[in-house]
Amino acid sequence: MNELSSAKLCAAAHLIVGDGITALAFLEHCTATAGDLVVVIGKQASALGRGVAYATGTPGTPWRYAYLLNSPAYDIDPAFADWLADRWDAVRETMAGRAPDWLAWADPLVAAGDIQGVNAPREIYGDFIEEQAKKAIATLAARGVEVRCVDASATALDVEGGQVTVHTDIGTTFVAQSLDVAPGGPSTLRIDGDDGPFAAPTVFGQEERIAEHIRAGAEILCIGGNAAMLDVLRLCQSLVPEDALKFLACAPEGELPEPLIPRLPRRPLQPNLSRDHTSADSLLAEVERTIAYARDAGHEMSEIRAGFRAYFLVNPLADHLTDKAEALRVPAHLRLWLRGGTRDTILEMRRLIAENRTEILPGIVTKIEHGPDGAVVRIRDTAGMETTRKTGFVVNCAGAGARSTYDPLTQDMLRQGLIEVCPISRGLKVGAQCRTKAPMVRHLSPATTVIGEDVTAMPLYDAHMLRTYAARASQAEPAPT
Ligand SMILES: Cc1cc2nc3c(=O)[nH]c(=O)nc-3n(C[C@H](O)[C@H](O)[C@H](O)COP(=O)(O)OP(=O)(O)OC[C@H]3O[C@@H](n4cnc5c(N)ncnc54)[C@H](O)[C@@H]3O)c2cc1C
User: Which residues form the FAD-dependent urate hydroxylase HpyO/Asp monooxygenase CreE-like FAD/NAD(P)-binding domain (predicted)?
Assistant: First the structure.
């Protein structure tokens, strides 16, 4: 909806930048009153809620619906899980006959009465979220608040005289009393040569080009071992049968995350950590012991991860470790120890590795060179030794890397000192309730690691966590004691 593109200036009560689930959560909790105009500015604001992860795929492509949520539906949002179960017949129809055979993985859970435990296609979660966005807009309209969604990119902002001005790439400038910025995570780390005849700098939006090479029988080398790598595997599986699959990954640890396997009855771990730690090492040792006991007691990683996530949402790190510099050392470890991912694809990948049909090369890709019929990647292993490997096509799914770069508005906010990069966790640092140095501007991203006195124990690259933190940011500030 770009109806404002011809106007040069638009005054609103409140602005939201972003079109993902965090922007939607800010809208759902927005306190605008009758007569107010709220403007949502996002690259795809007209599909508010989907953001990057839950976008609508291209109709008719084999890989449409191939990308899955990384955890069971109930873990993303119990309301989504019930919504999915209510529409199961329609979902079954949509997914029938697709490769990889998603229904074959879902069927045992369905038979066990656990539709809520499936790893749903991300686009289907996006359908649910978009429905929530429409409901939120209707609820605000019933309160007399107009919401306008404008497809545009916000490029910079000025804060002056109690109001905030946001500049966009469509030439319209927006002015309001307050602003929420929910721009998503940092960009993928660029690697020398990752955009060329035999390499793509990302998988998303590049599928047509990558598919040509997969169909032609080229080997696909994916840089990175995270969720996006699993998406590339599924892209390949959607296009060629298993005996024609030529896929491998290169990742620093050379390891896969653990599959998040659902079970009935649900038994999330219930940690209860001591509150008198004086160092990160001592808290981490207790977490490590708790994880080991949980494993001995037969807990699945899905239960351990969900238990710690719920625990730290109620019991912030600061309650266990008052030294903030020490607390900042904790999240990087928990991120690694509580790493989990899509059950279907990780178990598939494990099987393919066991059958020598694929592999994960340990190391870091430092450069990609393009030859006449493929690419050569330079790989540095953990000992610093460099090797090369000839391959067909390279897809960069490396993640953000240590020196993250962000969207233009966040970069502008960093330049102005409105938000900061935490020197220890390397994540983004905002004030209490996600306020920036200009209190009428809030910022929340999956990369946020410090919110006021709260150090987020587990990364916010998680739909449930982001929605929780956006809701909290909108609660009334506690009275000073
Ligand atoms: C591919 C992928 C898969 C994922 N899978 C899962 C999963 O299975 N489960 C899970 O819990 N989490 C998953 N995540 C983590 C994900 O980050 C969060 O779940 C959540 O989607 C993040 O929402 P967000 O609104 O903060 O950011 P995003 O979804 O990234 O949305 C931000 C949006 O704002 C737009 N934007 C940014 N800057 C500007 C600007 N300056 N002007 C206008 N628009 C702007 C962007 O284009 C983007 O669409 C995944 C992430 C990715 C990238």
Answer: 16-184
